[in-house]
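Why do we care about 3D structure at all? Because function follows from shape, and shape follows, mostly, from sequence. That is the central idea of this module. The next example makes it concrete: a single protein chain, its amino acid sequence, and then its structure expressed as C-alpha cells.
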Amino acid sequence: MKSRGWLIFGAVSGAYLLAVALLASDSYLFDDATSLQFNSALRSLDGGASSWRDALLSGVATPFGRILSMGSFALQAALEGGLYPDHLRVVNALLHGLSAVLLMLCARLLFRGLGEARDRAETLALITGLLWFLAPLQLSTVLYPVQRMTQLAALCSAAAYLVYLRWRLPLTEAPFIWPAALRTLIWVVLLTLLGALAKEVALLLPWLIAWTELVVFRGRVARQPHWLGALAVLATLLPPILLLWGWFGGWDVVHGGYRFLDFSAGERLLTELRVLWLYVYWLLLPWAGDPGFVHDDLLVSTGWLQPLTTAVSAAAWSGLLIGALALRRRAPLLLFALGFFLIGHAMESSVLALELAFEHRNYLPSFALALLAAWAIVAATERLQGSMPDLARLLPCLLLLLLVIPLAQRMVTWSDPLMLARSSVAAHPRSPRAYYLLAEALEQSASTRSGDERVAQLLAARESYRTMAAVDGDALAPLVLLHRFDARHFPGNPEQARWVAALTEQLDGAPLAATEFNAVAALLDCLDSRCAAAPEATRRVLRALEQSYAGDLRVQRELYRHYLRTGDGPSSQRILQRIEDIPGSEGLRAQLRLERAMAAQDSGAMLEAVVPLYRRDPGHRRQRWFGAVLGARD
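And the structure:
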C-alpha cells in the first residue's frame, strides 16, 4: 500500500487510540468478573511456573482452554502488577488496530484476485480497513475487556488468511509449486490453532479459505482448472454437512446445552435468521441509533410466522443468496461477501446452544460488509467524477464522518458505567440485564457519595432491581439480588422475607440456565453470613434446593460447600452421599472430599483425595492441589 494510505490510517488509528486512552472506563462488565476481576489465578501471580500454569488454565472450560487469551491477561498483570480495566481496554485498542492493518492487506489481495487494478485495489483496501476499524459496533468488543479472546482469535485468523492470500494470488498466473504450498499450509495450520487457543471461532478459518478459493480464485492455477477447485468444493460443503448430521443425529454437542436455555435448537436457528439481519442493520446504519450493550430481550421465533419477520428474514436471505449466485460472474464480490459473513457466523449464530445475540460475534464477519461498502463508495465516487467532481472528492470523507460521529458518541457513552447502563435501558426497556447493569452502576456510584445523595442513589438502584424482577417475573436472579441488596444496605427491611418466600416458590426443579444457577450459587454464598435470612426461611430455601434439584450436580455441589462453610458436618456428609449416587460424579466427589479434608486440615485425607483427581486429568491441570496439600501439611 502506498505511503499516503498508511499515513491516513496511522493518523486515524492514533486518534482512536488516544480517545480510548483518555475515555476508557476503569470498571469491569458482566463476564469480566469471573474471568478477570475475581480470577484468583491472575490475582496471585508470583512469577513461579505453577502460578503461570494456573493463570493459563484459568479460562473458559473448553477443549482448547483459551490459554492464549489468558496468557495475554497474565502477562499484562505481571508487567503492571495487577489488572486495570482501563489499561486492558487500551491494549484491546492496540490489537484492534493491528487486526485492521492485517485485514487491509488481505483486502488489497482479495480485490486484486477479483480483477481490480493495483491502484484501485489499494484505494478499496484503505477504505475497507477504515470502515472496519471505525465501525461503532466494533467498539463494544474493544471496550469489553474479556472480549480480547475474540480479538486475538480474529488477529490470528487474519494473519493466517493473509499468508494464504499472499501464496494464492500469484498462482493465478504461475504454476503450482509443492514446497511453497506446504510452507503455506504449515503456517495456516499453526496460526489457526493459535487462534483457537484464544477462542474456538478461529477454527472457521479453513472454511473461509475454501470459500475464497471457490469464489475468488475459482480453483484456477496458471489460468487453468486445478484440483484445488475440487478440494475447495469439498471443504466448503463438509462443514454444513457435519452441522446437519449433528442436528439430525442428536449429537450432544449440538443439543446438550439446550436443557439450560429457554428455547430449543430449532427456535434458536429460526431466531438467528432475524438476528443476522439485525447485525447487518447495526453495521450498515450505525447512525440510526445505539443498539445498547445487552440483547437478552430478543423475541424468540417459535415458528416461521411467529413472529412474521422470521419468514421475511428467511426469504430475504434466500433471495439474496439466489441473486448472488446468479450474478457470480458479473459481481463475484457480492457472493463472496455474503458467504464470508454467513460462514463467519456459522459457529456462534447457528445451532450450538449459545445465547441469541452478542455484538462481538460480528468482529471478523463484518469484514465482508466493509468490503462491499468500500466497493460501493468507490463506485459511487467514480460515477460522480464527471458530473460533480467536488462531491466525488468529498464523498468518502462524508461517509467516514457518518461513522466517526456515532463512534464518538458511543465512546463517550462507554466511558461512564452509569451512562452506559442508562443507554442500555433506553434501548432495551424489556431487558432484565439492562436493569441489572443500571442497578449495579447506581450502587457503585453510591459508594462514592454520602448523605442524602448516597441514599437517593441506593433507592434508585433498588428500584432498578425491582423493575428487573417485574420484567422477568419467573427468574431467580432478581429475587436473589434484591435480598442481597436489602441485607447489605437496608438491613431489617421487612421485604427481605418476601424475597426469600418468593425464592422458595420459584425453586420448583425446572432446569436452571447458567444465569439462574449463578443466582443460586450467589444466594448460598450470601446465606453463609453476610445476608442470612431468618433461620426458618433459610431452612425452607435449603430444603427446596435439596429436594427439587436432587439430581443436579451443580446445585448439590454448591449446597455441600455452603454446609462446609457454615460448619454443618452432618448436612455436608448427607449431600456428599447424595452426590455419590448420581452417575458421572466421580471427579466431583474426589474434589469435594479434598475440599473437606483441607477444611479439616487432615493431611492424610488430602493426599488420599488428590491422587484420583490427578489421575483423571491427563493434562494435570489440577497439579496445584498438590501445592495446596503440601502447604497445608507444612
